[in-house]
C-alpha cells in the first residue's frame, strides 16, 4: 500500500511523517506522529473527541484525509500548555471539575480555545453553541460551560 | 482498500470518475465510509482553490462546490442562507461540510440542499453544459457527474424566504424534519410558491399540496390552515430512530403553520 510523505506544522513545530493511503488525520497523528491527545471516539464525526484545528479552524480529525494536511498548520490540545505553563482553560477545567473520565477533554479544550481566540467575551449561549460538536457523557456540560465562562470573563485563577 | 487520486482540476477528476469511484469534498460523508471500510475502491479529490469561490451579484449568488457552511456564514452577501448554514452539524462540521456535498447527503441530512430546492437553485456540473434544477439533481443523485457550483437566486424580498429545522437535541441535532418556503408576493398575493421539506423522504422533496394551497392567496390564517392541512401531500416520510413516518406526517402541518405564521408576521 502506498505511503505518502506529509509535511505540516504541529502546534507551531514543523513535522514530517508518512501517511498510509486512505488514513484519516486522527490515526495519522496518533500512530504516525505520536500526538495522543486527539481521541478516537466514534470515527463518524459525531462525538468531537478528535477535534483539532486545521489552519486555525476546528475540524474533526477522523473525517480529514491525512494527506490533505500537506502544508497545513495543525493544532491539538498538546499545544495548549507552553513551557510548563498550562493554558488558563486547562486551569479552569481543573478548578471547575470539568473533566471526569477525561476522554472528551482534549477535544473540548480545542473547541473552547478556538471560541475564545475568535470571541474573547462569549455569552453562555455562544459557549454552548461552540461546544455543541463535542459530546461529554460524564459532566452534564455545566462544569465545562462554567469553566469556559470563567476564563472568558477573566476570572480564572492564574 | 481505498486508493486516493488527487487532481488539479475538476475536469480532470470528472474524466477519471467511474462507478468504482467517489468524490471527496469536505470529508464529512465520504470519510465515514472510508473509516468503516465501506468506501468505493477509488476516492478522487481536487486541489483547485477556485472550487471554494463565492460570487454574488444583485439577483443571484454562485457558490462553488467546495464552499463550506462556515464560508457561507462568513459571507455577508449570503445573509439569506445564514439561518440554514447555522444549523448544519456542529462547529467542526460547518468548517468542513460543503454546499455540493449536502446535495448528496442521505436522510436525515441534507437541510441545506432542501433550502436550495425551495429557492429554485440550479446546479452547474464539470464540463459545462446547461445548469440543472436542484430537484432534478436530487431525483437522480447516483448519476450526474461532478458538481462545479450551485447558482442560487436571491429572494427579492428577504421576508419571502423562511426556514425552520425541527430537532430533539439543541443546538446540534439532526432533523425530525426541516422546512423551507419561498413565497414571493405580487400585490399581496403569493406568486410562485415553493415549499420544501427535509427528512420527509429519501431526498428533500417539494410539498405539492402546500404549494397549491398557497398559490395565488394572501398569507392569512385561513390560507395557512389549508396549507398545513395539505403539508404531507406528496411527501414520503421514513421511520428512523428519531421519529416514525406516522409521527412525521402528523406534525408536518403543525410545523409548517408555525413557519408560515412567523413569515406572516414578517
TrEMBL record, chain A:
CDD domains, sorted: fer2
One Pfam family from the record: Fer2_2
Start and end residues of each 2Fe-2S ferredoxin-type domain: 4-80
InterPro entries given in the database record: 2Fe-2S-bd (IPR002888), 2Fe-2S-bd_dom_sf (IPR036884), 2Fe-2S_ferredoxin-like_sf (IPR036010), 2Fe-2S_ferredoxin-type (IPR001041), 2Fe2S_fd_BS (IPR006058), Beta-grasp_dom_sf (IPR012675), Diverse_Oxidoreductases (IPR051452)
One example GO MF annotation: metal ion binding
Superkingdom of this protein's organism: Bacteria
Keywords noted in UniProt: 2Fe-2S, Iron, Iron-sulfur, Metal-binding, Oxidoreductase
Name of this protein: (2Fe-2S)-binding protein
Automatic annotation (TrEMBL), chain B:
Origin superkingdom: Bacteria
FAD-binding PCMH-type domain: residues covered: 1-157
Keywords, in A-Z order: FAD, Flavoprotein, Oxidoreductase
A single MF term (Gene Ontology): FAD binding
Pfam families given in the database record: CO_deh_flav_C, FAD_binding_5
Protein name: Xanthine dehydrogenase family protein subunit M
Amino acid at each position: 500500500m502506498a505511503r505518502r510523505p506529509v509535511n505540516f506544522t504541529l502546534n507551531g513545530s514543523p513535522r514530517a511523517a508518512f501517511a498510509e493511503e486512505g488514513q484519516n488525520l486522527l490515526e495519522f497523528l496518533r500512530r504516525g506522529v505520536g500526538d495522543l491527545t486527539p481521541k478516537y471516539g466514534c470515527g463518524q464525526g459525531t462525538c468531537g473527541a478528535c477535534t483539532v484545528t486545521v489552519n486555525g479552524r476546528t475540524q474533526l480529525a477522523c473525517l480529514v484525509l491525512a494527506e490533505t494536511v500537506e502544508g497545513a498548520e495543525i493544532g491539538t490540545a498538546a499545544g495548549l500548555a507552553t513551557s510548563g505553563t498550562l493554558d488558563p482553560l486547562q486551569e479552569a477545567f481543573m478548578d471547575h471539575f470539568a473533566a471526569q473520565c477525561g476522554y472528551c477533554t482534549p477535544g473540548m479544550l480545542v473547541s473552547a480555545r478556538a471560541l475564545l481566540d475568535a470571541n474573547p467575551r462569549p455569552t453562555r449561549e455562544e459557549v454552548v453553541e461552540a461546544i455543541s460538536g463535542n459530546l461529554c457523557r460524564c459532566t452534564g456540560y455545566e462544569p465545562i460551560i462554567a469553566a469556559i465562562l470563567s476564563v472568558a470573563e477573566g476570572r480564572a485563577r492564574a | 482498500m481505498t486508493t486516493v487520486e488527487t487532481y488539479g482540476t475538476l475536469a480532470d477528476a470528472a474524466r477519471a470518475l467511474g462507478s468504482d469511484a467517489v468524490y471527496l469534498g469536505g470529508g464529512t460523508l465520504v470519510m465515514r465510509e472510508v473509516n468503516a471500510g465501506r468506501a468505493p475502491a477509488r476516492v478522487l479529490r481536487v486541489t483547485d482553490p477556485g472550487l471554494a469561490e463565492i460570487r454574488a451579484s444583485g439577483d443571484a449568488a454562485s457558490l462553488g462546490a467546495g464552499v463550506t457552511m462556515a464560508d457561507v456564514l462568513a459571507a455577508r452577501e449570503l445573509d439569506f442562507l445564514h439561518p440554514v448554514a447555522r444549523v448544519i452539524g456542529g462547529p467542526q462540521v460547518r468548517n468542513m461540510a460543503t454546499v455540493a456535498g449536502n446535495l448528496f447527503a442521505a436522510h436525515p441530512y441534507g437541510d441545506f440542499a432542501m433550502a436550495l430546492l425551495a429557492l429554485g437553485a440550479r446546479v452547474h456540473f464539470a464540463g459545462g453544459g446547461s445548469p440543472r434544477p436542484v430537484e432534478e439533481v436530487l431525483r437522480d443523485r447516483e448519476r450526474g457527474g461532478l458538481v462545479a457550483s450551485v447558482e442560487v437566486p436571491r429572494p427579492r424580498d428577504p421576508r419571502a424566504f423562511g426556514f425552520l429545522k425541527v430537532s430533539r437535541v439543541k443546538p446540534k441535532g439532526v432533523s425530525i424534519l426541516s422546512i423551507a418556503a419561498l413565497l414571493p408576493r405580487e400585490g399581496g398575493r403569493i406568486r410562485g410558491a415553493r415549499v420544501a421539506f427535509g427528512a420527509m423522504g429519501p431526498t428533500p422533496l417539494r410539498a405539492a399540496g402546500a404549494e397549491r394551497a398557497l398559490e395565488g392567496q394572501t398569507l392569512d390564517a385561513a390560507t395557512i390552515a389549508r396549507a398545513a392541512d395539505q403539508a404531507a401531500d406528496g411527501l414520503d416520510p421514513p421511520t428512523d430512530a428519531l421519529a416514525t413516518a406516522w409521527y412525521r406526517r402528523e406534525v408536518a402541518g403543525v410545523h409548517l403553520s408555525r413557519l408560515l405564521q412567523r413569515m406572516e408576521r414578517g
